[in-house]
Each structure stands twice: as structure tokens, then as C-alpha cells.
Amino acid sequence: MRGAGVRATSLMETVVAIFILVSAGFIVLLLFNQSLIYQKKTRQLNEAALAAENAMARCRAWAEDPNNYASGWGAFNGSVSDPDHPNFVITFEVDPAGRTVYTPSTSLEAPYADPERRAIPAGLVPVRCRVKWPGDEYVLTSYVGAAVRPVDPTTALKVSKVSGPGEPVPRDGICDYQAQVFDTSGRQIEGVTFSWAVVPEGGNAVILHDDSHRSGKWIKLQNKYFYNHILGTWGVQPGSIRLRATAVYNGVVLSGDSPSIALGGP
Known about the structure:
With 266 residues, this protein is α+β, with helices and mostly antiparallel strands. The protein has helices spanning 2-63, 66-69, 106-109, and strands at 79-80, 89-94, 99-102, 119-133, 136-145, 157-163, 174-182, 188-189, 195-201, 206-207, 218-222, 227-228, 233-234, 239-249, 252-257, 261-263.
């Protein structure tokens, strides 16, 4: 009887051991299968990331053409093909209107109202690239900067009168002048900051910097020149002057003069 009890215990231990071994083997197989699944998923994600980066690089290269950047982005606003990754469906979502960029930074321009902020309209265009495959997708979001435009340093910067009295400008008369930069195709380049100076040609006047735009894109010129500390009044210097505006665009120094401006006397 005692031997039979020992054999029964051994048989039970054997069954338990077999169950444990089978369970362990099943767990190992399950983990191995899961590892294969995650390896495949990781490989697909890596391939999708590479496909998205390649597609975004093509988009950036396309946008380097100023004509493309200023267009409706139809070439990259929808599905695109990639012969290197035929198993993926690649689509782009673009806001062609772009985003305004404040210069030199948003935080420094934040205290000012919009008309006085130094801004580059449509300086960035948000672009989202989606790479899809059955059961999953990879999304890459980026900003594409405005294309650098070709300029002729000798003719790119133009100075023109906006408003004010006719010439000769009377004493204390105020005129508004603006400066603009154009590329070689005649399109205006927004967001340029200008510096101004008065070039005397017998006369002289002052630029009212406090009443001019902070970016220098327009200024106010007044026909007065010196302050008489004895009389407490401003004087005038009749004659003529020119206004000179300068700017730097993509490392190129640009300069332009206004036509001669006649100033009246007392």
C-alpha cells in the first residue's frame, strides 16, 4: 500500500511537471510570436519614417522655387507617389496661406499691436505628411520656410512717396515715404527691415522715427532741421534732399534713394 502511494505521488508530480513544461513552452512560443510581430511593426515604422522624411525632403526642394512657394501647393496637397515605397499610401496636408513669422522673435514683438509688429507674412507653411499602411500610419509634421528670392542689389530697393504736401514741402510739412524690396521677377518681398538717412543737397530735414513704422517700411519726414534753444523753436534749411533706405536681404546689402525732394523756406 505504501509503494502504491509513492507511485501515485510520483505520477502526480510527473503530470504537474509536464503541465509546467508545456505552459512554459507555450509562453516561450507566445513571446517569440509577439517579438516577431513587434519586429515587423518596428520595421514598418522605420520604413514609414524613412518614406515620410524622403517625401518631406522632396517637398522642401520643390518649395525652394519661389514660384512654387507662392502657388497653391497643389503638387503637395494630396496623395503623392513614391516608387521606392509602393506599399505605403503617402498624403500631404498643407495650409498654403502659411503662418506669419515675427522678427526677430515672437516674444520680443508680443508687446506691440499687429500693425506695429515686425512680421514676415506667410514666412512658414505648415506641412503634414501621412504614411499609411494596413492597420497603422506614421505622421510627420514640419514647417517649410519661405524661399529665398533672387534680387539685383542695384535695383531691388525702391523708395517712393506715399502722401504729403507737394513740393517745395512747406515749413513743418510732413510727408510719408515707403521702402520696398522686389525680386528679379518684380514681386515684392515682405518682412524686410529698413534703415533710413537724409542725404542733404543744400537743404536738410528730419525723420520722425517715433512716428514711423518700427520696421522702417514707412517713415515720416518733416521739413525742419535744427532747434533754436534761444527762441525755443525749430528752424528750417531750404534746398533739397534725398532719402536713402538700406536693408539686408539674405546677406546682400540693398540701398535705394528717393528722387530729389525740394524743401521750402520760412
